[in-house]
Specification:
By secondary structure, the chain is an all-alpha fold. It folds into two domains: 13-80; 88-131. The chain has helices spanning 11-37, 44-51, 55-60, 62-78, 90-130. Helix 1 (11-37) packs across helix 2.
């Protein structure tokens, strides 16, 4: 059995991993700051995309996860859940009117189909009686 005469030098590997972790942390911080400046929604998908990291990275680091969840919750409080009808834009009104018109036409067609089915039943009944 030979005796080990050398010792592993992992200092460079450890230093590189530490620098990489710090760089990723900076990327996430910068991405969150950028999203806040641009007033974009803060969520795990947006931060992961902006910081070019995996969502799993954000979930596995409790300080990042808590920060994102806190910012996301605070943004939800600022955004009103529903707009009142007076706040709707002209284009949204047009979309709603088009949908209502389409539904009215569908209901009219359904009523017409029902009326024609009843008339067909009556005509078939009279025809059967003649036979």
């Amino acid at each position: 059995m030979t005796k080990k005469t050398w010792q592993r030098n992992t200092n460079g590997l450890v230093a590189h991993a530490k620098r990489r972790a710090e760089h990723k942390q900076q990327q996430v911080d910068q991405a969150i700051d950028k999203l806040l400046r641009e007033k974009k929604p803060i969520n795990f998908n947006a931060v992961a995309t902006a910081a070019e990291v995996a969502k799993a990275y954000l979930y596995h680091h409790p300080e990042l996860r808590n920060r994102i969840e806190m910012l996301r919750a605070s943004q939800r409080k600022l955004v009103p859940p529903h707009r009142s009808p007076s706040e709707r834009t002209e284009s949204s009104r047009e979309v709603l009117l088009a949908a209502k018109d389409r539904r009215i036409k569908e209901q009219e067609q359904e009523q017409e189909n029902q009326r024609l089915k009843e008339a067909l039943k009556m005509a078939l009944g009279r025809l059967y009686e003649q036979v």
